[in-house]
Amino acid sequence: GGVFFNDSSMSISAGGDDDSQLLQPVCGTDVAQKFKPLNTVAVITLELFLSVSVLVVAVVLGVVWPQDMDRCAPYFITLYVHAAFWCVSLIVDRHIKQKHHQIRVNGYLEFYQQIHGHGQIPFYIVCLWNAVLLVLNTVFHHLYNDFRQQCSVSGFFKPVNYLSLFIVVETAVLACVIIAYVCKVIQFNRSKPPPDVLREEWMISFIQDSYSGGEVGYRECGDHISDLLEKQADLIRYLKDRNARLSHKIMLLSRQMQGERT
């Protein structure tokens, strides 16, 4: 069973200014920090540009490759280029995750939940298309006994053209996902919001979710337990990080004061 506090002095409501102020993090009093934008637009735009470049390479090689040279070379070159693009996408994904973690540390907990999963989708798409191209390559070698002869056929039905068609679909999907991500980041950077823990409406909502009805230790199954626990975990991480920063600042000030005394 749960523990109930029916005393009105213990209840926490939206109108309780004193209670909400008491539950504000102590570090909030010194956080007049400068807004730090999320600098991921350039790097993820570069990923989209590279995706378009892979498509251009596949199309151009398929069109202008000389007849007297190996006709399968454009197909294999495109596969190599796409593999290199996957490596770049991995680096971009690591960089974006690091930037998202910094946003979380800075206290933008709700925006982190919105953007973190979205920022990982481009890399998942590239990984999926790597698997698709692997299956496509396997099918070609399984169906055609003389694969190199198939590369020399006239018309559209050449392996490199099929490869280009699949890369067109990949690039289109990536463009939609990346443009939506960029719009979210630009809107966030332009609005320059304060950290969630310093926004009164966010704290009031958090307090109401945590102590609705004056109950502690019991929640109905229909409540958003997972969202609440995730919000609490994010808040704890933020406060721990702020506490570590403040402790470091206090230690530096103490050393400075000791140096001045001596």
UniProtKB/TrEMBL annotation:
Query: What is the source species?
Result: Coptotermes formosanus (Formosan subterranean termite)
Alphabetical list of InterPro entries matching this protein? TMEM192
Identify its membrane topology class. Multi-pass membrane protein
Subcellular location(s) per record: Membrane
Transmembrane intervals:
41-67, 73-92, 121-140, 160-183
Identify the main location. membrane
Can you tell me which family this protein belongs to?
Belongs to the TMEM192 family.
Q: What is this protein called?
A: Transmembrane protein 192
Keyword Cytoplasm included in the entry's annotation: no
Gene Ontology annotations for the cellular component aspect, listed alphabetically:
late endosome; lysosomal membrane
UniProt keywords, alphabetically: Membrane, Transmembrane, Transmembrane helix
- What PANTHER family does the annotation carry? TRANSMEMBRANE PROTEIN 192
